[in-house]
Design brief:
With 158 residues, the chain is mainly beta. Helix content is 3%, strand content 39%.
Length: 158
Amino acid sequence: MSGLKPPALDPTTLESRKGSGYPEPFRAIVAARSKKGLTDALGLKNFGVNLTTLPPGAGSAQRHWHAKQDEFVYIVEGELILITDAGEQVLTPGMVAGFPAGNADGHHLVNKSARDAVFLEVGDRTAGDVGSYPDIDLEARDSDGRWHFFHKDGTPYS
């Protein structure tokens, strides 16, 4: 028991969310990913922060970019490969990466190491965002704070 009282929080007391809402066949890369919603637990509404753990072989997401929402990551422990249109680069503890809204450079993190990696994932919550996935037939649309998934031709996934 940490003994902390709001507004402080010990992340180890939070339950993890595993996997993703991605439709099949796109879930496999994130199936083992786990997230702890730090800002949700604290009642914060304007931005989100997740403490995310990727075991070996897992990815943070499918490679994507956002039309309206900025993203930022801070590597806490382990080693992750950042994959963008420019290729791959290694990120280690203390390193950061940022993805401005509207920059059509798909990105994701993949754990190619033999041990877990942990990072903070920070994003704003601008309504009406669209996530584009350059490598697969997928588009995500934010509606009422929930992501809905579509084929690139606009047909919804069921």
